Amino acid sequence: MITNLKDGNIVYHCPLTEDDAQFIINKGMELDTNICVWIDNRLFCNKINAHTLGYSRISDVPPIKFDSLSDISDKSITKVLWYDDELRIQSFLKNMRKSLSPQVTCCTSKPWFLEFFNSRTSKSLALEKICGFYRINLSEVIAIGDELNDISMLKAAGLSVAVENAVDELKFQADIITASNNDDGFSKLVYDFF
Q1: Looking at the DSSP assignment, which residues form a beta bridge with residue 82?
Q2: Cα(73)–Cα(20) distance, rounded to whole angstroms?
Q3: DSSP string covering 22-42
């Protein structure tokens, strides 16, 4: 979902299908993992604990607890995220890729986050939509990333940048590597170019 922050209007939205969202949430409940569900820019969680509160702080959106799928089943779900320890996430990723419909992409955005979203969307598509909205040519865009979910965005941008602590696969795709995000890599990039 891309939202215009000035007026709150949705510029673009590509939610999961209801069947896919239900399957992912039910499976997450079976596996007793921490489930975060994005609906209309609101964050719904099956548990309120250190994991979901931590994710809430990162996103700066307060969590709303849901007890069962029926609490949220009639909503348009943008994305589902599972938050767990790294070994469990790796196991979930391997197993879920085999059982998801082709309409769902799942990938890690951090080693402890497993994200599920509609396969018709990506960060590259989001970048294209934003550029179209502001009438900016993609060749004039600098994209910076650190995880596997950033690869499509880096491929679409005119200049692709990875932070030093990015995963190796992303660094391989980048034109430039800057300092880590812990060492102000973004700020250094902006200073070097502007």
Answers
A1: 35, 114
A2: 11
A3: HHHHHHHHHTT-EEEEEETTE
Using one digit for the tens of pLDDT, what is the confidence trace for 4-41?
888 988 888 999 999 999 999 999 999 999 999 999 88
Q: Which residues contact 184 (CB under 8 A, 6 or more apart)?
A: none
Neighbours of 12 (CB within 10 A): 15
Given a contact cutoff of 8 angstroms between Cβ atoms, the answer to whether 148 and 170 are in contact is: yes
**Contacts of 18 by beta carbon, 8 Å cutoff, 6+ apart:** 73, 77
Q: What is the mean pLDDT of residues 172-182?
A: 94
Contact at 8 Å (CB) between 15 and 118? yes
Can you say whether the dihedral through the CA atoms of 193, 171, 96, 49 is positive or negative?
negative
Asked if the model's pLDDT at residue 61 lies above 90, the reply is yes
How much is the pTM? 0.79
Which residue's structure tokens are 């650190």?
146
Predicted confidence at residue 187, as pLDDT, reads 94
What single-letter amino acid sits at 130?
A: I
Q: Is 127 helix (H, G, I), strand (E, B) or coil?
A: helix
